[in-house]
From TrEMBL:
Residues annotated as signal peptide: 1-22
Record's keyword annotation contains Signal: yes
Pfam families for the chain: Cytochrom_C (PF00034)
Protein name (database record): Cytochrome c family protein
């Protein structure tokens, strides 16, 4: 019974207007937040890889799927296990990359500001 209660509470809370709007973001503001990412990533369709892979189309993309980019062994292993970059996984990864990919090569320590995080994910979601 306990196992059913928590998912029901989470689903109910997510449907509340205040909770839903907390995760919505401003894509224009997110584009400015992305400037922190530009040292390693590009976001242009067909753009080059940098120190990190090109992030165009990242939302909904299978992890470690950009041809020609050298991903860490840990990232490749997670991708083989089915890791796909949806908004929730991106949120967890951007907040604390080492919590999602412990032996990954991303040196960014994480984005902790919730507003900036929501805005950045809103921006990344527009890259289609």
């Amino acid at each position: 019974m306990r196992r059913l209660i928590l998912p029901m509470l989470v689903a109910a809370a997510a449907s509340l207007p205040g909770i839903a709007s907390a995760q919505s973001g401003d894509a224009a503001a997110g584009q400015r937040v992305f400037n922190q990412c530009r040292a390693c990533h590009t976001a242009d369709q067909g753009g080059r890889n940098g120190v990190g892979p090109n992030l165009f189309g990242i939302v909904g993309r299978k992890a470690a799927s950009i041809d020609g980019f050298r991903y860490s062994a840990n990232m490749r292993s997670l991708a083989e296990g089915g890791l796909e970059w949806n908004e929730d996984r991106l949120r967890a990864y951007i907040t604390n990359p080492k919590a999602v990919v412990p032996q990954g090569s991303m040196s960014f320590p994480g984005l902790r500001n919730e507003t900036q995080l929501n805005d950045l994910i809103a921006y990344l979601s527009t890259l289609k």
